[in-house]
């Protein structure tokens, strides 16, 4: 090997030597190959950072409709990922449009064998590292040549330094009773038989149990169990005028055994089916601007989107000269140390938060870059204090706070929240909130106020519907789409409620959060699966992490609601087939 | 683009479990026959038939436009697949799926929603997943929802076609959009497939260890797959069918990088009707050794030079050659699509091949030249009974492969309407067989090649021993060309020097020119089983042929990587490969 490589070694080698022996065959194979790979060198470019990651687990998934099983799959997997950075922390092959675009012939496997063998794993890492390294050298060359023609407005490093972490937890033990949970899906899906107006429905159960292995040349060694599972029920119906209406319920836990009892889930599904049935004959909503009460669950869903999705400061990649790539900005980044919420509100992101004695769904040990997250106060007395960071330096900040939880763009990890806790210093009982809403309605001479109980988040919408929503949002001043309300009611001065349909929010963005007038005293958790799809599209995304928002009911002074003009399919010519619920 | 790769699965029927029910031809929907569908009708057929009747009758009464034909098809697939690498079980997967395809034709057989329009491929069916357990409620709901969706898009396309036909000049082919076909009722039992997973895992481990023993190989695997496919079909003309088959295969793959960066791969596949019919492990081991030897040979072999000259294509290579350059061009629907190249459309009853060659397609053929065939079926995906179709007789083109979409001069289906679940049906190939009247022993064919090399004063000729597949373009906008991708190619010298392996060759050419150059065939038949991909998805097919001697073939250099082989040595030392 070239001399240059050897010179670069000592600093990194020191970190490696500092480690105590780790008794894990995966990690041992990884460390052996990490050490060897630091000798790579061509064209004067040597790796300054290499990381290996493997997710070893089993995915189970099944779907059923009206009592019939549609599919059931148990898929064991071992997915490796190799990252090689050449250059230095200050300037490397990432944060450029070329990152990840260079691909040579692949001889390493995209899935490791189910049976373990150290020799095979080292051989695979050897081939994968060789490929990633060659790609990295090409990427940094392309990046350098692009920079001969463009000047960056400010100099930001490419990768933040990080103290090594050693965290060896017991590996997860996958086990799913496929037959048992297939039967649960059948039984739960059969609940819809009693609701003939629900035209299409599905119950999905999935369980993913894996162990995350991570090692890098800085000395970080992680073995941590990762578990997510859930039950999702979705249903569709035609409203009297032919419009498609939908609703859903979802339940998440770390293990299937941790889910609510089947009877409880069934009750919730039935409540949803009743709700949807009632909505068939409900009137269309009208345009409305005025006070809106988001009950706790809907408020959590709103917070997850409007606030939670904006906690990462984006960094534009070095791009092909003349073809700049601009990522959507974060509305929160520009409000750092400024007022974003009323001063009675705090927001905390706590990776170890507990609810009713159990850890919330967003709890985790380390992020995708092997950094352990700590509890963060994001908003204090209404003032924005910090954002969420991965190891990607951004304008005005360098250093991870362990939130790089998902694979991101151009070599970086995407920063997303763990458990967002929305806490209020002044609260009022639920009954009082509704009273307050009605007072506002009276003051402003409105015929009614609006209560929202559930939003479509994570979304169960079709791609067509999502696209329509995104287009509409672009015109309404919000930088990102906000999902539609699924359970929304008019509340009249006498307290009577009336379900409406076919409306969505307009201009719902970070600015709107300053219009929060009051908060309830009974917060509720929204626990959901976060992925890279827009509106965390249900069941989508190759990479998912658990997340949670705990939020009380929130009364907004003024929210804009509109009724979009949408084409509606004509009702089917043929009547639906009769269902035999005695089956 | 249409292509064919050896991603197979083959099969043979269950002679053991014969038919267990009635078999009948009906000539109209008139007696869609409750009497014939008595007690033995499978539950799934009953559910499909009842719902088809309910939906179709209501749409006929109340719909505008009115449907004149409807069909439901459910494809049930059970697949077990396993893979091993370096002596380790790498993957194991068991899947069961069921998909529904709904067909609705609105308008009339003369002009309906399936009319071929340039640059507008008809796609109505959704291929939705349906209940695996014959659950009537779940099935009925999905049938109703999909029928509604398909009916809507069918109506919309018919309206567009009608306004479009008024704006454009008449197409050359004025034939109808749908032909008559007799109704059939038959319920067959498809054998359950038995896979001894433990035994197969152990076999795969052993076999894969053989491959990984070769140091030059960077990546290798041996996999096994067994499949059981059952098709249930009902239509508004009274056809009620349930039939199916099993498939089994072994796939051997090895890859390496040459010193100059060229990526090389060798592979082999072995197909049979069911796992029990796959060859003895000794045979498989010999095939694995050949894959290793070929790859080793290729790593040292010189790169091919662009070449035009005489060659022999092995039987398997010839099969693929015929599949690409001929088979795809006689698929019926291409003859009436104005955007197709229509190489053979006007050549019926004319000579298209040397007179010593005949070609037929036979989906009733389950075994040929001692090999199980991939492209057999009892009924095609329109419920038309499979039959042998003689396409070329003594060099003269006689007919095309037809679905129920008729073409000028050929008003009826010959049982080749096929699809993968989720796609719309078009005419596709089944078991292609090339028959020769000018057969010579293999050694003599080689002598004929050497004579031809000398006659043309070429330094050498080529022998194409094995191929992985090929692709072709049939559209009129593209060049009417094909490519066949060889794995193992030798230079044959006229002066008695040993044959020399070369690497990096692709066979290229245009169809009509290539056919004229076939001089003779061997007497040894070979079978190539694989999956063919085209607009109606991936369907299992086979092609059987003797070896062909051609006076001229063109070979081009493969596009190749210049990336260096791995920079560090293989981590042979378990402690990390320190020097």
Model description:
Chain A has 583 residues and is of the alpha+beta class. Helix content of chain A is 22%, strand content 29%. Chain A has helices at residues 3-17, 25-37, 118-147, 178-190, 262-280, 296-306, 430-443, 463-475; strands spanning 47-65, 68-86, 166-168, 200-216, 221-238, 244-253, 288-294, 345-349, 354-355, 358-359, 376-380, 383-384, 404-407, 413-415, 419-424, 449-455, 485-491, 497-500, 504-506, 516-519, 524-530, 545-551, 554-562. In chain A, strands 7, 16, 17, 18, 19, 20 and 23 form a 7-stranded mixed beta sheet that branches. In chain A, strand 4 and strand 5 form a beta hairpin. Mean pLDDT of chain A is 90; it is low at 1-19. Chain B is α+β, with helices and mostly antiparallel strands and 579 residues long. Chain B has a domain at 14-296: 2-Layer Sandwich (PmbA/TldD fold), CATH 3.30.2290. Chain B has helices at 43-62, 136-167, 197-212, 281-300, 315-325, 442-455, 511-515; strands at residues 2-5, 24-26, 67-85, 88-108, 111-112, 128-129, 183-187, 219-235, 240-257, 263-272, 307-313, 357-361, 367-368, 371-372, 389-393, 396-397, 417-418, 426-427, 431-436, 439-440, 461-472, 482-492, 500-502, 505-509, 518-534, 537-557. In chain B, the strands form 4 sheets. In chain B, strands 1, 11, 12, 15, 16, 19, 20, 21, 22, 23, 24, 25 and 26 form a 13-stranded mixed beta sheet that branches. In chain B, helix 1 (43-62) crosses helix 2 and helix 3 (197-212) packs parallel to helix 4. Chain B is globular, with a radius of gyration of 25 Å. The model of chain B is unreliable at 1-39 and 573-579 (pLDDT under 50). Chains A and B meet through helix 2, strand 1, strand 2 and helix 3 of A and helix 1, strand 4 and helix 2 of B.
